[in-house]
């Protein structure tokens, strides 16, 4: 068995889920500035995530679900998932974002699994609190190691794809380290760099 793990925001999806939510509240630029610093590795991922989600307090869950289902897929997303599965890969998404989006798009893309965070809500609105499986800068690497052991997949048979600093921890456990339209910190540690917004380009390396 082979394993391919994709980041969601700015990788499988063209944009940042949190910023789409923030736009609804008129605070997109405020959130974007924090996201950009976190993805460059200039801020602690956990602290930046908690801060950004706190700004969403009061957003109706119905609006969250509506926005989550209208997010734009990255060019080539469907093609790369289909192509990798044809080559014997299990294809999974790890996201520092939220299951409202990843659960829906995992079904749309035919992914074999998805791991993300949860937005807490009460009485139909977001409370500004967050929890889940991908809260820290090293969460993706640790989850990948666990998944490899569970599925009996080797380092050589693992491919990972991301764009930001919180994807870096996966590189330690993968022979194919793809920096996709990525921040410099990820490019410096990648052995496959793709700067064109077309995920299907990955198929040329497998």
Please render the helix and strand layout as text.
Blueprint: E1 2-6, H1 17-24, H2 28-39, H3 45-54, H4 61-68, H5 77-86, E2 89-98, H6 99-109, E3 113-122, E4 125-132, H7 139-151, E5 158-162, E6 176-180, H8 184-187, E7 192-194
Parallel strand pairs: 1-2, 1-5, 2-3, 5-6, 6-7
Antiparallel strand pairs: 3-4
Please give the oligomerization state of what you see. Answer: single chain
Tally of structural domains: 1
CATH C-level: Alpha Beta
What is the CA-based Rg, rounded? 16 Å
**Residue-averaged pLDDT:** 95
Estimated helix fraction: 25-40%
CATH architecture: 3-Layer(aba) Sandwich
Number of separate strands: 7
State the order of secondary-structure elements, H for helix, E for strand.
EHHHHHEHEEHEEHE
CATH superfamily: HAD superfamily/HAD-like
Largest sheet: 7 strands, mixed
Into which percentage range does the β-strand content fall? 15-25%
The coarse silhouette is globular
Uncertain segments of ≥5 residues (pLDDT<50)? none
What is the topology, as strand order, of the major beta sheet? 4-3-2-1-5-6-7
CATH topology: Rossmann fold
- Distance from first to last alpha carbon: 14 Å
**Count the helices. How many?**
8
SS class: alpha/beta
């Amino acid at each position: 068995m082979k394993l391919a793990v994709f980041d969601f925001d700015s990788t499988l999806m063209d944009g940042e889920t949190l910023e789409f939510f923030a736009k609804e509240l008129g605070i997109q630029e405020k959130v974007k500035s924090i996201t950009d610093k976190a993805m460059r590795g200039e801020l602690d991922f956990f602290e930046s995530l908690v801060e950004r989600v706190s700004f969403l307090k009061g957003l109706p869950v119905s609006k969250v679900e509506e926005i989550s289902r209208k997010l734009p897929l990255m060019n080539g997303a469907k093609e790369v998932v289909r192509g990798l599965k044809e080559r014997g890969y299990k294809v999974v998404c790890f996201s520092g974002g939220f299951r409202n989006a990843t659960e829906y798009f995992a079904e749309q893309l035919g992914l074999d699994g998805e791991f993300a965070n949860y937005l807490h809500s009460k009485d139909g609105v977001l409370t500004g609190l967050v929890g889940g499986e991908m809260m820290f800068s090293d969460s993706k690497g640790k989850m990948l190691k666990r998944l490899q052991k569970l599925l009996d997949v080797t380092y050589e048979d693992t491919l990972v794809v991301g764009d930001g600093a919180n994807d870096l921890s996966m590189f330690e456990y993968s022979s194919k380290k793809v920096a996709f339209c990525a921040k410099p910190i990820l490019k410096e540690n990648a052995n496959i760099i793709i700067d064109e917004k077309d995920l299907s380009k990955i198929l040329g390396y497998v």
